Amino acid sequence: MLVLVLVWLHVAAMVAAVAVFVGCGTTIRLLAVRGDAIVLRTAVAVTEPLFRLGGICVGVGIVTGLVLARNHGYLAPWLIGAYALTVLGAVLGIAIDGRWAERLAAADDASYAAIRSERVPAIASALGAVIWASILWLMIAKPS
Fold it and tell me: How many domains does the chain contain in total?
């Protein structure tokens, strides 16, 4: 029974995290394409607490996932892949995509267009989607 509760908590926390990160991140990207700096600054400010909530959900998902991983062995190949992808996703999301949104929200009118059109954050965002999907596949398929 405890395992089922932990599985439910793990899945619910990670679904919530993906929903927050993808939903808020996509909203910010779409607003950046629109080009209105005032609207984007407001969106970044409004979504900041949601991103924190997403981080808490990821933390809950990781802790419950590690408790559940004990049953499979912490060094199972699919778990090692999930660990590596999780770290890579966090680095891309925080260090590149998150900082891009912060720089964009803080930009003056002269630098806004240049920051908005940077390619590396767009690539990081697309890679983030692939990483989330890959982690989901690893969790379901559990390849050895």
Answer: 1
